[in-house]
Amino acid sequence: MPRILRGLSSKVLPCGCLLGIYETYEGSVIGLVDLKSARCADRTHDGGSIIPASRFNSGADSSSEQNG
Ligand SMILES: [Zn+2]
Hints:
Radius of gyration: 12 Å
Strand order of the largest sheet: 1-2-3-4
Strand content: 35-45%
Mean pLDDT: 81
Number of strands: 4
Shape: elongated
Number of domains: 1
Largest sheet: 4 strands, antiparallel
Bound molecules: zinc ion
């Protein structure tokens, strides 16, 4: 668990989870799932899970995910 320096922002993921974006003391930016959506089936989105910055700051919003 990285040490959080400060919160930068938050966003709602396509799955409905609330993601908080934080800066760590190391200088890296990470996302933490603050609130998991009841309809989210992603097991990596359990409360407190760390989402790598590359997953949410690319700006590319066109990628579609397959729902299996
Ligand atoms: Zn989710």
